[in-house]
Design goal:
CATH class of the largest domain: Alpha Beta
Number of domains: 2
Oligomer: single chain
CATH superfamily of the largest domain: Aldolase class I
Radius of gyration: 22 Å
Bound molecules: flavin mononucleotide
Number of strands: 20
Strand content: 15-25%
Largest sheet: 8 strands, parallel
Strand order of the largest sheet: 3-16-15-10-9-8-7-4
Distance between the termini: 29 Å
CATH topology of the largest domain: TIM Barrel
Number of helices: 14
Length: 364
Amino acid sequence: MADLRVEIAGLKFRNPVFTAAGPTSRNGMTLLNAAAGGAGGLVAKTVSVKPAEVPKPNMAAMGRGRIVSRRGILNAELWSELPFERWYEKEYEIALGTGLPVIASVGYTPEEVASLAPKIQEKGVHGIEFSTHYVGGHTEIAKSLKASVDIPVFAKLSPKVNVAEVAKSLDRLVEGIVAINTYGPCLRIDIETGKPVLGSELGQGWMSGSALKPIALRCVADIAKSTKKPVIGVGGVMKGEDAIEFFMAGASAVEVCTAAILEGDTVYGRIVSEIQDWLDEHGHSSVEDVKGMALPHLEKGIVLEPPPKIDRERCTLCGLCRKSCVYHAISIDKAKGLFEIDKEACEACGMCISVCPHDALSVG
Ligand SMILES: Cc1cc2nc3c(=O)[nH]c(=O)nc-3n(C[C@H](O)[C@H](O)[C@H](O)COP(=O)(O)O)c2cc1C
């Protein structure tokens, strides 16, 4: 069986699936529940010098019913609504009681983080993640944290900055990079009322979940190419295969927020066992085995010579590929068991490969 333990900046994690700063890490009890649900590391909700006053409502799914979990959510939550003293006196201690590495999250100015960080370290918390979330000032905050604590410091980046450049500029100041925070601002309207779905200023919010994953993966790969520091991927990890994608893009571990909001605390254990199964089935002995696997291919690129390769054993003639073939190159005759791709009509766009639910088509 693959060994799922990972070590990042000297911290030892039982598995590579951590909580992320958000409502599912908003106090000691939620972190305790996440540990019981199988998380390998505990990242706490961002704290600042004063409690946040959050607009209400502040979370909305991007779709209803079955598509909810596939798309993601918008949120207008801010940092922790609890005063820092409460975290200091009670919440970190509860999380530390799990025996898992605990990473606090702090914001937002160099002065603010410098005033909080030594107290966080004093509590025995193992690491500190800082969130700038579009306010910038990464280098100043990192310097301020470096000067105030000895525990590992992680910078959490927003997708709108040039993540490769920021990561490079932080190379000597942090022990790791976390990518990414939510994307936005975004908007949704309730068409029955004509009102925004969120209670924030201008009704705007920030996007997370599946829709964020391709942006997060690109950021992780950009960062992994620009620094040797460990990268923790976050954004749209809903299942084990998502985590594998992040590892292949260069991540050493992943954080999970939206999937935990939608599914509950057992999500971490489910994702961990899906990672385990995938690694075992593919003959890998650890996360390290697949880490960064995609990076050389990103440099070289890939080319599809038409038509895509067909695995006839796997093809069920379901016809999904034909529906999405805008070049009308695919013909299927279920009665005769026929599946053909017209080489002349095929423009090698690759769409059919990505929609096939049975992996019957490939670049080859
Ligand atoms: C409701 C909500 C609250 C969040 N609060 C914080 C926060 O306090 N600090 C922070 O750095 N990120 C915060 N995030 C961002 C998440 O930690 C994570 O970076 C982002 O949601 C992408 O991951 P996901 O797709 O797994 O949710 C929040 C996200 C959500 C959905």
